Amino acid sequence: MHMKSKFYPLLLAPILFLASCTKWLPNSQQDVVGSWQIVSIQQQTPNGSQQVYSDYQNGTFYFSNNGNAQYSDQIGQMNGTWRLVPHSQDGTNSLELRLYDYHNSDAIEWEFYTVDMTGNRIVGYMNRNGYDYRYEFRRY
Predict the structure, then answer these.
(1) 8-state DSSP, 26
(2) Above 50 in pLDDT, residue 133?
(3) Which of 8, 34, 43, 130 has a CA that sits 20 to 30 A from residue 49's CA?
(4) What angle do CA 36, 38, 40 make, to 5 degrees?
(5) What integer pLDDT is reported at residue 45 of this predicted model?
(6) Environment class of 82 (CB within 10 Å of its CB; exposed 0-12, middle 13-18, buried 19+)
(7) Residue 131: which of 56, 37, 41 has the closest Cα?
(8) Closest CA relative to residue 116, chosen from 89, 87, 80, 79
(9) Tell me, what's the pLDDT at 28?
(10) What are the start-end ranges of the H helices in 22-129?
(11) Which residues sit opposite 36 in a β-bridge?
């Protein structure tokens, strides 16, 4: 009986240690918060990739910490939401972005099936019309 009581603190110590270290892990949601611009879009084709252009490269995307999103350029502004979805099976994240300008009937409904986030760069991959696209965003 005396041996059992010494054993439990030994089991509890690693759990407490790991729990105290979680604050050092990067918070993916926080990595997205801020202002971003699209710097590159590539369409992946069977023959390789080719650079494509979008009017949305002229403006700035803003992702707030409460899930609200905004896009603005010289023409106007769109408002909506963003959501980062973690995939525990493979450790990746997907990103959903929905922005609307009801006055001009404009909308962005993007679903990046995976995103890579490193410092001031987000690279997102989506599939549209049977093609894969690679979007690169830089922190503004």
Answers:
(1) -
(2) yes
(3) 34
(4) 145
(5) 87
(6) buried
(7) 41
(8) 87
(9) 74
(10) 28-32
(11) 61, 139
What is the CB-side half-sphere exposure of residue 16 using CA atoms within 13 A? 6
Structure tokens at 46: 């069977």
Question: Could you read off the pLDDT of 58-93 as tens digits, one per residue?
Answer: 999 999 999 999 999 998 999 999 999 999 898 899
Under CATH, which architecture does the 29-139 domain have? Beta Barrel (2.40)
User: Which residue is listed with tokens 């995976």?
Assistant: 114
User: What is the per-residue pLDDT across 11-69, written as a single tens digit (0 to 9) for each?
Assistant: 444 443 444 333 333 467 888 999 999 999 999 988 899 999 999 999 999 999 999 99
Q: Which residues have a Cβ under 8 Å from the Cβ of 60 and sit 6 or more positions away?
A: 35, 36, 37, 71, 72, 73, 140
Full-model pTM: 0.78
Give the phi and the psi of residue 58 in degrees, each rounded to 5. Answer: -85, -10
Query: Cα separation of 32 and 40, whole Å?
Result: 18
Q: What is the DSSP string of 72-99?
A: E-SS-EEEEEEEEEEETTTTEEEEEEEE
Cα 103 to Cα 8, 10, 64, 68, 99: the distances in Å are: 64, 63, 23, 19, 13
